Amino acid sequence: MTIMRRFRTLLWVAMAATSLPAGASADERLVAPAGLTVDRTVVVMRHGVRPPTKAQPMPEGVARDPWPRWPVAPGWLTPHGAAAVEAIASADRAAFLETRLLPAHACPTRIALLADSDQRTIATARSYADGLAPGCALSIEHHAQDTPDPLFDQIDGGHAPLDPARAQAAVAAAVGPGGIATIEARVRPLLARLDQVLCGRAASATSCGIAREPTTIAPATERGRPKLRGALDRASTAAQILLLEYADGKPAADVGWGRVTADEITAFGAFHALEFAMLARPPYLAARNMAGLSPRIIGWLADASPDAPTLAMIAGHDTNIANLAGLLGLHWRVPGIAVDDPVPGGAILIERLSDAAGNHFIRAAYRAQSLDELRAGTARAPYRQRLPIAGCTARGIPGLCTLDAFAAKLNG
Asked: Which of 49, 121, 298, 403 lies at a CB distance of 3.0 to 4.6 Å from 115, suitable for a disulfide?
């Protein structure tokens, strides 16, 4: 399916999803098939709720009014975001106790926690550890804060050089016939509504809003990912800011200046998902950018030593989630969130299942709080959905991979 067709589906489902209660379509027990036991899980998680990463969230003139204030520095995990991460970790703890990946009455020892070096990822890992194992002093592997860690961004760090021609072909295939201008034309009404939120009565003025600048895609270089520019780029950023304002529990007047509804936040989120669908999910780009994390994931799943971690967690970014989802062909629909949009605190769960003969198999799931639960800072009924891994069938089960087939997918 081309991105153009998929984006139309994103918009429709994004609006439909707002009518679902949290967990309505996905609150199923992730039990193992007969003859198999879950004995390892890797949680690849996006950091929790944060402010925009810049003090001036978007260029002057994009919005008519001043942006709301936040209680922490740009890009840092907020107190509300920390509480929401701790809540989802407590829900994960209950699930992991059921599968015996965590001990019931002691601090876990067979556990690994890895975080990128941003404050928000380190703090997310700490909040997750606090909810997962209360009272336990779990160590977290990370670089010094704000010291770049190439594990999380292999392309822009120059550690996984791109073939620009292959990257361009991957993006073109994702965009589909007609190019980016055709996609922008099809979503013009939604861009116009976003401008009304940003600009109020000034939405029609040429000096305010995002829709006036045509969208382009700056091509990849050997050391740089392709970049979205213009209206759809700014729509993706604005949509994410509105979602974060709502998810942080801000008063209605401070969410989109009181000019946006929760349903519209869901619909606008499709812009954010679209950017990832074009630039982060294509397998060639995803495999290159995951070249640092993929060996860690495979290593945890394959390690045969008696003290190997039964549970590992990576606190990273939405790009990492989109990369992994692209490699595995995963798609989700979290209530209140646009289809395939990586949720703050949401995670792809990679589970290893083993049979009595010691054969290993891999399956995937997505787990997240709904938009309403993020806003409340709770995780009473998290979305938890098994997702078939594209192109895999094992033991007659579609979407189940052998460990070798899973490793081949991550390696591109």
From this structure: 121
